[in-house]
């Protein structure tokens, strides 16, 4: 039984039980929401509903709004995908997706540096886990090969990775990972939190930049980073969306985002799709900082706009960060458990609107602080 057959069978069972759910707009007098004092139903002086109010219910219980249909359709078109499902945060989107589609007895290969929300999602669903060394394709294939040889009937294989890693600033070898997944019959889930808006056609991410959209099971995207708006979403097939609407506890039992946030999403999407010049400046700024730090022999990881300066020792990282803060730079020391033991670091987050001259001075001051610490 394939994964799509597993989902279709589960949904058909719900239909047969009269339990299949879909998102519906509010209508009629409200005896469904949790708007106990009536504040959420108040109208503005113009007579229009106050869009800033909370959804006052989950999306399945009067918390849905027409704006979310528009947002989800626009996002799906942006990615060239069948469907999108909005969620309240990147953490809940990743945890909810993974803990819903992965079942006990399934096998999941997870990069050792995956974010805590991915780790938590796997903890909740209790699969057989294989944690592969960071971006190590040989280690990943070792696990896939061993598992494929003894794969129990009816059990699925998954690979979960980030596209751009939040603490190392490097990209996953996604083309090679997808090729391995296809060879061994695994579904691929990619967290695009730190790449959405910054890579790909109109900024839609690394998966779209590489032309892999039809070859992955799902991607997760957040608004609270480059896009600059609260919320997150899962991108995939129409079947996956139906399955999550009916099975994902993180959607079913969560109060919906307020409708006004949907308007923010539409505005932000227009801005990011037309932001090629900003993306070019972002990558140019990052490259300039990498060059300056390399010239001063400051050790960094990756080649992106997330620039880790690995110092190793926790007190040393704090000391260097403090010196930079005293110079007026908001640079933080990142220590375990956010990063592995012995890899305390500075995490420099480069932006498109940083002035190149300021970036040059900052990089010089980083080199000086590291040398003198």
UniProtKB/TrEMBL annotation:
GO molecular function, one term: 8-amino-7-oxononanoate synthase activity
Residue ranges constituting the Aminotransferase class I/classII large domain according to the UniProt record: 30-365
Pfam families: Aminotran_1_2
Cofactor: pyridoxal 5'-phosphate
InterPro entries, per the entry: Aminotransferase_I/II_large, AON_synthase_class-II, PyrdxlP-dep_Trfase, PyrdxlP-dep_Trfase_major, PyrdxlP-dep_Trfase_small
GO biological processes: biotin biosynthetic process
Key words, A-Z: Pyridoxal phosphate, Transferase
Protein name: 8-amino-7-oxononanoate synthase
Species whose genome carries this gene: Limnoglobus roseus
